[in-house]
């Protein structure tokens, strides 16, 4: 029982602290975990102590605090719903962006594969392995029997040759990033 001579905030804190088990019993099944219930109770207790100066009777303090807890629960549910909706929207946006990225990558890869036919076979091989299949330069060098430096030079020359061939075939489309590539298929010329 709180000391009657204590300040109102101290009496309220003592009263609410004495009822903590009862409050947790109310919150835990509604939140699904004891930890979440304890967190919510602590924040509600802080609010109550800050705003509870005007309460006079113990019984009205209990009823008032249960109202504070119900309001805190509603706020928690609303916050959870808003967070869940935001996560769902984000997941849909990520899926759409991923599909668009994959479609663009497939289009670009198809163009690069066609252009690779228009350069020397050793250039086409390095571009195919490194740029299209994701192999590292070191891995490619080992499989091709080259030094890593020689493989880098070959890749550089292959990209330059393909870029030159792309400019010859596409012209202004290339300068604009090949976003709407309608170019004819490159014809091999070695």
Overall description:
It is built from eight helices and no strands. By secondary structure, the protein is mostly helical. The chain has two domains: 8-86, Rna Polymerase Sigma Factor, Chain: A (Orthogonal Bundle), CATH 1.10.1740; 117-175, Arc Repressor Mutant, subunit A (Orthogonal Bundle), CATH 1.10.10. Helix 5 packs across helix 7.
Distance between the termini: 97 Å
The amount of helix comes to over 70%
Secondary structure class reads mainly alpha
**Main beta-sheet annotation:** none
Order of helices and strands: HHHHHHHH
Radius of gyration: 35 Å
Mean pLDDT: 76
Task: Tell me the layout of helices and strands.
Layout: H1 8-18, H2 20-31, H3 34-51, H4 58-116, H5 121-132, H6 137-144, H7 148-170, H8 172-175
Helix pairs in contact: 1-3, 2-3, 3-4, 4-5, 5-7, 6-7
Characteristic key phrases:
190 residues, mainly alpha, Rna Polymerase Sigma Factor, Chain: A, Arc Repressor Mutant, subunit A, 2 domains, disordered C terminus
Overview in brief:
77% of the residues lie in helices and 0% in strands.
């Amino acid at each position: 029982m709180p000391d009657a001579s204590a300040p109102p905030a101290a009496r309220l804190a003592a009263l609410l602290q004495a009822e903590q088990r009862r409050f947790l019993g109310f919150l835990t099944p509604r939140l699904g975990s004891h930890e979440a219930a304890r967190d919510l109770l602590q924040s509600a207790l802080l609010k109550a102590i800050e705003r509870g100066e005007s309460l006079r009777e113990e019984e009205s303090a209990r009823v008032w605090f249960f109202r504070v807890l119900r309001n805190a629960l509603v706020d928690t549910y609303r916050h959870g719903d808003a967070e869940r909706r935001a996560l769902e929207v984000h997941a849909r946006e990520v899926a759409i962006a991923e599909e668009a990225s994959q479609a663009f990558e497939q289009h670009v890869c198809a163009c690069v594969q066609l252009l690779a036919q228009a350069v020397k076979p050793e250039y086409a091989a390095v571009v195919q392995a490194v740029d299209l299949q994701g192999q590292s330069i070191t891995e490619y060098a080992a499989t091709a029997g080259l030094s890593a430096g020689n493989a880098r030079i070959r890749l550089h020359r292959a990209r330059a040759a393909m870029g030159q061939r792309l400019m010859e075939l596409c012209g202004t489309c290339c300068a604009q990033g090949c976003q709407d590539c309608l170019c004819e298929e490159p014809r091999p010329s070695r």
